[in-house]
Amino acid sequence: MLxxxxxxxxxxxxxxxxxxxxxxxxxxxxxxxxxxxxGTDPVVALHTxxxxxxxxxxxxxxxxxxxxxxxxxxxxxxxxFRGNVWNIGAEGQLTMGAVCGSGVAxxxxxxxxxxLLPLMLFVGVxxxxxxxxxxxxxKNRFNANEILxxxxxxxxAIQILGYLVHGPWRDPEGFxxxxxxxxxxxxxxxVLLEGTRLHLGAVLAVICTIIVWIFMSRTFQGFKVSxxxxxxxxxxxxxxxxxxxxxxxxxxxxxxxGLAGIVEIAGTINQLQPIISPGYGFAAIIVAFLGxxxxxxxxxxxxxxxxxxxxxxxxxxHLNLPLAVTGVFQGLLLFFVLGSDVLVRYRIxxxxxxxxx
Amino acid sequence: xxxxxxxxxxxxxxxxxxxxxxFAGLGELIAEKAGVxxxxxxxxxxxxxxxxxxxxxxxxxxxxGAVAAIGAGMLMSLIFGGLTQFLLTNQVATGLALTxxxxxxxxxxxxxxxxxxxxxxxxxxxxxxxxxxxxxPLLFNHDLLIYVSFALxxxxxxxxxxxxxxxxxxxxxxxxxxxxxxxxxxxxxRLLAIVFGGGMAxxxxxxxxxxxxxxxxxxxxxxxxWIALALVVFATWRPARVLIGAYLxxxxxxxSLHVQAAGDAVTNAMSVFPEPIxxxxxxxxxxxxxxxxxxxxxxxxxxALISRDATKIRLNAPASLGRPFHxxx
Lengths: 357, 329
What we know:
The complex is a heterodimer.
Chain A: E1 3-7, H1 13-37, H2 42-51, H3 57-82, H4 90-107, H5 116-142, H6 146-166, H7 201-218, H8 220-230, H9 232-237, H10 242-269, H11 280-290, H12 295-319, H13 325-340, H14 342-345, E2 346-350
Antiparallel strand pairs in A: 1-2
Helix pairs in contact in A: 1-2, 1-13, 2-12, 3-7, 3-8, 3-10, 3-11, 3-12, 4-5, 4-6, 4-10, 4-11, 5-6, 5-10, 7-8, 11-12, 11-13, 12-13
Chain B: H1 2-33, H2 41-59, H3 62-86, H4 91-110, E1 123-125, H5 135-139, E2 141-143, H6 144-162, H7 164-174, H8 176-181, H9 186-212, H10 224-234, H11 239-262, H12 264-269, H13 275-285, H14 288-292, H15 294-307, H16 310-316
Antiparallel strand pairs in B: 1-2
Helix pairs in contact in B: 1-6, 1-9, 1-10, 1-11, 2-3, 2-4, 2-9, 2-10, 3-4, 3-9, 6-7, 10-11, 10-15, 11-15
């Protein structure tokens, strides 16, 4: 073995910033190889993927639009991940947020006022929180692995959405299409920028990011979460309740995912349909890690991930490549992010002598 | 006559529905016994499913497809193995990455195969044995992969508890430092376990696309990889319980299909329940969407019930599960 990993005495600050960049560069290289293998000119393809989406005002609006649910989900997940609580079910919490908030809009359909939108958002957050509370309670009360339960509940949530739009909530004037009525004007988030679809949700996402940032860096509760993740023994010794950390993590991440869901409906889609998210809740896991669980990092990571969704669409439109390229890129990016993190904690040494026992 | 035939059909369906979980569950069991938590089962299954399908379309031979599915799962698991064993990445995050990558890659590769019909694996009746009433159709009139799954169960149980290699595998999973100290190569043993788990996950996917529903559809595993992961916990890391659990979930899947087909009989049966409950049950039964939630809900409920005894889980789980190993670290 010629390469050897040597633990660093201290984690490398320089590498902490460099490793996401290394990962991004490696992803680009992998992209060049991938596109060449597909017989597409890699320069044209990468230009179409990363640059072309942003060449119009509308495109920039879409960029922020798609980053919104990613940012909301990822910033919530980062709280739990820091506390070593693994909520993998943001997709389900997003779905339940969308379902609950939309339920309000449908219940007051044709009978609404300016109070409707705040109520929808509130109920959406509650819906996400409630769905997130289930795995945390199962963990706290029954010791059930939260990764598995939160994920299973995502599948359940998506089926519930399917049941509602195919059944009781189907638009009575919708020619039997599986979708609800389109919300009235009072149930739709206002557009921020003329000529784009960018809506108020983006601002909400940024506000939430700042709140989480303050919570994690300036409050005692946030500190407890960090300690629970970095030094579980110390947290236990200090008497911090592990159960509270788990519940709090799930309420925060579930609530924010729920907000992402109802914002996506009230802002972008304006009705419920069987598929409301191209996997934002799962992609948010990548976003959280890519942003090194730091709010600012997550902000930029959500923009990068959003660009990947847009880039995938552009490739489909202009180069006739399948949309699934986005998923491949997302996976590769996360591999490279995780792989290059080794540089933070270890030094790679070339050794020439035979390896020791 | 009709009743017993239906019962046998349901049981045969149960075995078929449970078989992918047997493969994926036993594969993950071996990996976890070596101390490795690979959450990428779903991704490896999908890539196995699409590879097996594509190879079958190209060669016309589903047996080659099944072998290719194993190979694809192994390759996928090598990505995980390389990252977690050599670059010491977090196993939870790396497994998730593998699933996300597998979902994307399989969708990408499978695009041109959507709607392509294939001739899947056909049942191979075992002479004489398949003629035995009840037991014959139940156990001896299946496709080859089901026999393989029976054999796999026997081999895994024997390997784990009766061989020296199995003992070493478990030692590595319980205490990698101790195993390293007596001179076993922890990384090598773990890599082998990971690759075995990958191969079996790939085969589980292949079973879905070659036998269970011989076609390719995006995300066709529908969470079975995650159910397999949960199964290993339910089973408190014991092969026999993985097998039982797999058929239990197969049974739930099949029952929910049969309930819908049964129609009026079920509607009448629901009237024995007191008023609101009977009506709710009817709503569930009449919606394919709500019925589809049953395997997932069952997973959650059983997981909670089994995990309730924290000590039992702790005593049964491999002590080094999920912990990275670096000699001298």
